[in-house]
Amino acid sequence: MPGLDIEAEVSVLALIQDSQIHKEQMKSKKMKRRDTELDPLILAAAFASGPHVTRHHHSHDLFPAVADPLAEGAWDWTKWTGQDAPAGKQDPKRRSYHSQQAPRRQRLKDLGLPVDPEPQVEIATSPTDLKPPSLQTQIRSPRTSISSETVTNERLGLPPLDDVQVKCMARTRIPTPHGPAFLHLYHNNKDNKEHLAIVIDPAQLEESSQTSNIPAIRSRSLDAEWSPNETTMERITRGAYVGKLSPNQHTASVPPSVSTASSRTRQAVPPALVRIHSECFTGETIGSMRCDCGEQLDEAIRQISQPIVKPSSNSTTSRPIIVPGRGVVVYLRQEGRGIGLLSKIRAYNLQDLGHDTVTANILLGHGADERKYDIAGAILRDLGFGEGVNGEAVRLLTNNPDKVEALEKEGLKVVERVPMVPKSWTVHQQQHDSVTIIQPGTEDGIVPGLFVAQESSRTVRGPDLDKYLRTKVLRMGHMLPLLGHGV
Ligand SMILES: Nc1nc2c(ncn2[C@@H]2O[C@H](COP(=O)(O)OP(=O)(O)OP(=O)(O)O)[C@@H](O)[C@H]2O)c(=O)[nH]1
């Protein structure tokens, strides 16, 4: 071996021999090699340079100024000056790399076929016969967010449509620990997220005359006729039915009319209790105790499901009538106050370094709160709230002043704000009355050992949660009294 002394050569040969023996042993034992046979970097380079590159790399020339990439020495990048060869000196044999997966327009051009005058705008992926005509062109597939109206408007030189359109794609009954709920899945023309509405209105499952004059919380877009050819079974399958579904009972709903809308004014029950809740994977799915989101979601469903005491309409009986609770949780896919799960996870690390939730967001280049509530407003309007002068008002379950303001801007009437008090605080307050939970001056303002035992699996507590709640109150203006803090 040139350049190696005898000793080095012997060791290299010994290594090669060892490796061959090892290979033979592995083969005979039929064991899988643990070391890679090919250098992954070489593989990556080969994949990136061949004609099999993706359509996105179609016109990339990965070897500019290299006349023949297969010629010996052509791969020597140390000789490349960073410039392509001057035009006159370019070798006619120069190889260029053409992707087999060129974009359609490029392939048509290469074949000499006419190219479409304008890119096709894709409409929603769901079957067209399942869309109501009014929304058909506005509900988009996840890949495109431009409606055909927008495109038409652009062609006509008009500004694009800005109003949020939502459509309930499906509804089903979900039994919860607090009672039955109807889960509604929405599509919209603003983002590609599937926002949800958890409607609690068990009176819809009953045939009771007591609740017949209380308006049912139903989605207009779901109950609409999506196509003249739509079958009863198609309507029922997407959730446009009344009452409870069973093998013996299945009645499709009728499309909403003006009369059903105005019947909302004839109610004698308090306005529906509504919560706008933002997604929190950590708190709701893995039970994180950094926040109380899971507990809040559970508590909101519980509170909305509480029966309503209604004064008797019959003057001869003085006994009040108890009707099932009614309301909605609009579940928005705005993880991490709109910054997304990735950034939220990073924000947690910054929080562990001592920053609060607001500063952590800002350090990552985000706003303290990036959420919007226009889709929530549209969903609530679809469910019959706030439309027209007689539209039903709501009682909003929140401590967040932004949500009240946003819903009012959306044309909804918020007649009452119902606070969401963290369960650990309530239980603590009940048990210790005026004992201070949060004390300035202690580390993180936490008094160790003062937190009460968990009331249920959904009751969270601990120093991380405490810091999170304090930041909400002290930096985000949440309307929650900090116990012992004089706020
Ligand atoms: N960026 C960030 N987001 C968080 C953190 N902890 C929880 N969140 C998110 O905060 C949001 C909580 O939203 P909501 O449950 O609607 O409650 P809220 O707006 O705080 O106000 P309330 O209605 O009073 O409960 C969810 O999107 C959570 O994912 C955190 O430490 N950092």
TrEMBL record:
<dbReference type="GO" id="GO:0003935">
    <property type="term" value="F:GTP cyclohydrolase II activity"/>
</dbReference>
<feature type="region of interest" description="Disordered">
    <location>
        <begin position="81"/>
        <end position="151"/>
    </location>
</feature>
<feature type="domain" description="GTP cyclohydrolase II">
    <location>
        <begin position="237"/>
        <end position="419"/>
    </location>
</feature>
<dbReference type="GO" id="GO:0005525">
    <property type="term" value="F:GTP binding"/>
</dbReference>
<dbReference type="Pfam" id="PF00925">
    <property type="entry name" value="GTP_cyclohydro2"/>
</dbReference>
<dbReference type="InterPro" id="IPR032677">
    <property type="entry name" value="GTP_cyclohydro_II"/>
</dbReference>
<feature type="compositionally biased region" description="Low complexity">
    <location>
        <begin position="252"/>
        <end position="266"/>
    </location>
</feature>
<keyword id="KW-0686">Riboflavin biosynthesis</keyword>
<dbReference type="InterPro" id="IPR000926">
    <property type="entry name" value="RibA"/>
</dbReference>
<keyword id="KW-0378">Hydrolase</keyword>
<protein>
    <recommendedName>
        <fullName>GTP cyclohydrolase II</fullName>
        <ecNumber>3.5.4.25</ecNumber>
    </recommendedName>
</protein>
<feature type="compositionally biased region" description="Polar residues">
    <location>
        <begin position="123"/>
        <end position="151"/>
    </location>
</feature>
<feature type="region of interest" description="Disordered">
    <location>
        <begin position="246"/>
        <end position="266"/>
    </location>
</feature>
<dbReference type="InterPro" id="IPR036144">
    <property type="entry name" value="RibA-like_sf"/>
</dbReference>
<comment type="pathway">
    <text>Cofactor biosynthesis; riboflavin biosynthesis.</text>
</comment>
<comment type="similarity">
    <text>Belongs to the GTP cyclohydrolase II family.</text>
</comment>
<keyword id="KW-0342">GTP-binding</keyword>
<dbReference type="GO" id="GO:0009231">
    <property type="term" value="P:riboflavin biosynthetic process"/>
</dbReference>
<keyword id="KW-0547">Nucleotide-binding</keyword>
